[in-house]
Design brief:
alpha+beta, five-stranded mixed β-sheet, 45% helix
């Protein structure tokens, strides 16, 4: 149908309009719109990249900083006895740190081929490997594929959490790159090989080689190709690929073979080596799986060891610093000490609350060989309370050689025959003081005064020698005083000490006057082979004549005085007893007998060993006191230890500046008051026994006094023995009555049961 137009002009106009519409599709306006769209897309892309960059920057900003301290692997500490034998390994992780030079090439190649084939080529991130991992992750959950390089694994294990997130991965990439800028490839490789967990409690390849194949860190080159491949296959799943477990042998074999194939692919081994290694059973070369390590042995001793190390070394962490600590421990002596403390097989204790502590050390070196520390609920534990080194108790009369007679001989050259008038006196402040027997004994020698442990002569000695000199003498023997103050009551041991301090002080008397600080550690070796020597230098604490005169008087204490229970046949023993009493208020409060004792000590020594023993109760309470034979348990502990380990039967050697007259010792060069009398007819001799009637009389008085004291002591012992026997009989009688009652009760019950049964 023809179109109708009003005019030709109208038709032309319509045709022109149609042509313009056809052309409109490619019009400048259309082209302008497309340009705008493209520009917006480009802008959006730039913005997206910017936002991504900002996001990545924000993620990286929150990343931890690379700190050298965090790259150091926590290493366990190894402890050794006095002979260098391994005792125990303590720490958060069992690991042995090694250097790159100790790693055989075959083992290095096994790990690189398996974990990071391009380790020596990339800068911390393997771009191809990471791209493959990202592509695979896009198909599934993020984190299903890692693509981590060895450098990234070091970062992950040292600085980041195991959580699998994009943020953590970005931080890992950034830190890996930074790590590569700061450390060499070999350093990073060793961070990895010393850190990775390889199962069975082993961290690092050295610990794993030892665990699985019995090969130590210095002989890793003994690993075979199959063994090296097996170790390199473990990081992926240490438990599942554990070749020591029968159910995992097949999986372990497959995993090892994958490692071997990777080594072949990377050109590290030949086809022949590959085939030969695959034929070897995965169980070949394995050592029997070690049993779970038993609990820490010698806890009390090792506790003292660690306390000493931490006191002397700043900022040390025993659990993670990888120290090798060489101790002074004698395992046999410590085992025996533990038996003394923790059983009734050697010592018969009065009850479970009774406590004790002692230190057993080498007289000549100050090296502690064994300690006893607490019983039952107070038994020492590692990182716990340790009576042998921590407890503070009054030493009683064991302090008299340290604070009274030692200083007097050292400063005034007193002889063992020096006379003191034992009579009624008081302290300077007017406080009363008495002897244990509540008697006065007139003129007597310091030997006799010490032999029978009289208090008044001790105080008189201190007052004569002076407090300052006494304090200085004691401090030279390692004794410390609260607030650096001393009091007259310290003459009879009212201060406080622990067994370690007292043993150290007494050892100097047995070591010719040379003091060695008592110690538990010989040396500490750091992982980098740096050695710290803990052996103290001996110091001259007193003249040799002082040490010998004190020793000779303490011999008398053990042979015929208050310490006879501690004497050991065949050994030259010197020692001193010590007790402390309850005050009247405490005795009344708990109903303690008048002669009851709060602390009982014995400190003694031979040329070989020194031992200080404390016994008592930790707190007051019903029945918590000592009397009679229980006060001698400390003596018995000393005796059994020396009987078991005292092998040196030599005697203490008399110095050249000491001479003996009539069983007493004198010092050459002492003033006239301290020299023995000289007769007119025999001036060249230091003493004429037959020509001095006064000395004969003195000797007779001494002998009579000695005999009287021994008789008193025997009577007291006999009386106590009778009392103990009476108590024992009463206990036996009570036991029999209880057994009789129990038997009657059992019989009656039996009859009733039979009657019921018959009915």
């Amino acid at each position: 149908m023809s179109e109708m137009y009003r005019s030709r002009q109208e038709r032309k106009q319509v045709e022109k309009t149609k042509q313009d519409q056809k052309k409109g599709k490619n019009s400048p306006k259309r082209r302008s719109f497309l340009k705008k769209v493209l520009l917006w897309c480009l802008l959006l892309g730039v913005v997206s990249i910017g936002i991504g960059a900002v996001t990545v920057a924000a993620m990286i900003k929150d990343a931890p900083k690379i700190e050298a301290s965090k790259l150091v692997d926590p290493l366990s500490t190894k402890l050794y006895d006095k002979n260098g034998n391994f005792i125990y390994e303590y720490g958060k992780e069992k690991r042995t740190k090694i250097k790159y030079s100790q790693v055989p090439k075959m083992l290095e190649h096994a790990f690189i081929a398996t974990e990071d084939a391009h380790f020596y080529e990339h800068n911390g991130i393997d771009i191809k490997g990471t791209s493959r991992a990202i592509f695979k992750n896009l198909k599934g959950d993020f984190g299903s594929q890692g693509g981590s390089t060895i450098t990234q694994q070091v970062i992950k294990n040292s600085f980041l959490s195991p959580q699998k997130t994009i943020k953590r991965k970005v931080q890992e990439w950034s830190l890996a790159y930074q790590l590569e800028q700061k450390y060499s490839k070999h350093q990073i490789l060793m961070m990895y090989l010393n850190k990775i967990y390889l199962g069975d409690g082993a961290y690092g390849v050295a610990a794993a080689a030892k665990n699985y194949y019995g090969i130590d860190a210095d002989h890793l080159n003994k690993l075979t190709l199959p063994e090296a491949a097996m170790l390199a296959g473990l990081p992926q799943s240490p438990s599942y690929y554990d070749p020591t477990e029968p159910e995992h042998v097949k999986a372990a074999t497959n995993r090892r073979n994958i490692v071997l194939e990777a080594m072949y692919k990377q050109g590290y081994i030949t086809k022949q080596q590959l085939d030969d290694a695959k034929k070897v059973p995965v169980t070949a070369g394995l050592v029997p799986k070690t049993k779970k390590q038993p609990g820490m042995p010698y806890e009390a001793f090792l506790d003292a060891v660690v306390k000493e190390v931490e006191r002397k070394l700043e900022n040390v962490d025993i659990s993670s610093d990888g120290l090798s600590i060489y101790t002074t421990l004698d395992p046999k002596a410590q085992t025996f000490a533990d038996k003394i403390m923790n059983t009734d097989a050697i010592i018969s204790y009065p009850n479970d609350n009774f406590q004790g502590a002692f230190v057993f050390l080498d007289t000549k070196t100050g090296e502690v060989r064994a300690i006893g520390s607490g019983r039952n609920q107070y038994k020492a534990s590692f990182r716990g309370n340790n009576f042998a080194v921590d407890i503070k108790r009054q030493p009683g009369s064991t302090f008299k050689p340290v604070f009274d007679y030692g200083p007097a001989i050292e400063n005034s050259k007193w002889s063992t025959a020096h006379q003191i008038n034992d009579h009624e006196i008081t302290y300077s402040n007017g406080q009363s003081i008495s002897n244990w027997d509540h008697q006065y004994h007139g003129m007597l020698s310091i030997r006799t005064a010490l032999q029978w442990s009289y208090n008044i002569p001790a105080l008189l000695t201190l007052q004569e020698v002076g407090m300052d000199k006494a304090q200085n003498f004691a401090e030279n023997l390692g004794i410390t005083f609260n607030n650096n103050k001393v009091y007259e009551s310290y003459a009879i041991g009212s201060n406080t000490v622990n067994p370690l301090e007292l043993a150290g002080a007494y050892s100097a008397f047995g070591n010719n006057g040379e003091y060695n600080t008592p110690h538990f550690v010989r040396k500490v070796v750091y992982p980098d082979s740096r050695v710290v020597n803990f052996t103290p230098k001996p110091k001259r604490a007193m003249h040799d004549y002082t040490a010998y005169l004190v020793t000779d008087m303490l011999r008398t204490v053990v042979k015929s005085g208050t310490g006879k229970t501690a004497n050991v046949l065949g050994l030259d023993v010197a020692g001193k007893t010590g007790t402390t009493n309850f005050d009247s208020k405490t005795r009344a409060q708990y109903g303690y007998p008048s002669g009851s004792v709060n602390d009982s000590w014995f400190a003694g020594y031979t040329p070989q060993y020194t031992m200080a023993v404390w016994t008592g109760y930790t707190k007051n309470g019903s029945g918590n006191y000592m009397d009679g034979n229980t006060t001698k348990i400390s003596h018995q502990m000393f005796k059994v230890m020396l009987e078991a380990f005292g092998t040196d039967r030599s005697s203490f050697q008399q110095p050249s500046d000491v001479y003996q007259v009539n069983n007493e010792l004198f010092i050459k060069g002492a003033n006239a008051e301290e020299a023995p009398p000289v007769t007119k007819n025999n001036k060249d001799k230091p003493f004429d026994i037959d020509g001095n009637k006064e000395d004969k009389k003195h000797k007779q008085r001494e002998e009579r006094h000695k005999q009287q004291e021994e008789n008193k002591y025997k009577q007291k012992e006999e009386k106590h023995k009778q009392q103990e026997e009476k108590k024992h009989k009463q206990k036996e009688k009570h036991k029999q009555q209880e057994e009789k009652k129990h038997k009657q009760k059992e019989e009656k019950h039996k009859q009733q049961e039979e009657k019921k049964h018959n009915q």
